[in-house]
Design brief:
Structural class: mainly alpha
Helix content: over 70%
Largest sheet: none
Length: about 60
Amino acid sequence: MQIVYFTLVAAILYLGASWIVDRIEFAAGRRFKYRSLLFFAVLLTLALASFQLISAYTGNP
């Protein structure tokens, strides 16, 4: 069941990271040259945090 949680959260995080990067660019008023690096940083941060929480709540360290 844990793999289902990881898969669902990964899809949601992908969309969420894209939205966050769009909001950051909108606030800056321009497209960033290295947008993919910003996307990677946001996605990695969200994934590490949420996957750790899933592992903790499902009882698998």
